[in-house]
Amino acid sequence: MKSFKNILLISLLICLAGIGISSCNLGGLQLQKSEIFHPHVLDPNQHITAWQFLKEHTDTSLVDTGMIWMWRAIQYTGMDSTEYLDTGKTFIFLNNSAVLATKSGKVTTSCYFGKYTVVERDAHGDTVFKNNKPVMVPATSWSDYPQQQIKNYLEYLIIKGKYSFNNLTSTNITVQTLLPPNTDTLNPQSIMTISMTNDGNSQIQLNNFFGSGGYVTVQTGGILCTNGVVHAIGNVLFYQKK
Question: What is the pLDDT of residue 37?
């Protein structure tokens, strides 16, 4: 019995230590062949414009309509494709949750409709009051806001210049957006800050500056389109100091 165990052990060692032997049999079982691992990195290049990328994520005939609310905002404001076809830009695209998100049946302040509430109106269109103050409620549609307000927001989401993983660090870069200066009283320079976390996650963050009233971590970043870079976010983005 001891002799059989020794023979079995020697056979196993020969199979494992044999150089150039692709496989061997042990007890009728073939050992797995050694394979060289070839790492594969997903290609971030989309080979389409940012405008086309957006349209492909809003087509109701397709499964993916994850940016349909942003598409509706563009339609509501009357903006065309010009700004999204321009070159050398960084585009911040809104996933649906950045516009409308709920928790326990209530709209959260992490989305646009929840942060920027609107006056509640009755069936006749009159303002609803409580304690002599207008009642504010989450919006249900872009049409609850003035068109110019939404257009301003969309312009703020387009950055002059291309910023992605290749040229970002943990140090904030202050960038200029397409929003005209002095449009937003809380952000008269119409700027945004962008940086990348210095950790294993390497996440892109927007408006995470000292004293920021709120910042956003990009959900899907570094999407390379033919005319610029796209970063998709799932929370409302704004520039505000505490």
Answer: 46
pTM for the full predicted model: 0.81
Report the candidate in 145, 138, 135 with the shortest Cα–Cα distance to residue 107.
Answer: 138
User: Which amino acid does the sequence have at 53?
Assistant: F
What b-and-e string marks burial along 72-100, b requiring 16 or more CB atoms within 10 Å of the CB? Answer: bbbebbebeeebbbbeebbbbbbbbbbbb
Measure the CA–CA gap between 151 and 148, rounded to whole angstroms: 5
Per-residue pLDDT tens over the stretch 188-197: 999 999 999 9
Q: For the CA atoms of 102, 104, 106, 110, what is the dihedral angle to 10 degrees?
A: -40
Q: Which residues of 161-170 are buried (b: 16+ CB within 10 A; e: fewer)?
A: ebbbeeebee
Which option is the CATH number for 50-114+146-233: 2.30.180.10, 3.40.50.620, 3.40.50.300, 2.40.50.140?
2.30.180.10
Assess contact for 111 and 117: CB atoms under 8 A.
no
DSSP 57-126: TT-TTSS--TTHHHHHHHHHHT--SHHHH-SSEEEEEE-HHHH--EETTEE-TTSHHHHS-EE-B-TTSP
Q: Please report, for residues 49, 57, 139, the alpha-carbon distance to residue 175 in angstroms, rounded to integers and kept in the order given.
A: 22, 27, 30
For residue 212, the cross-strand partners are 241
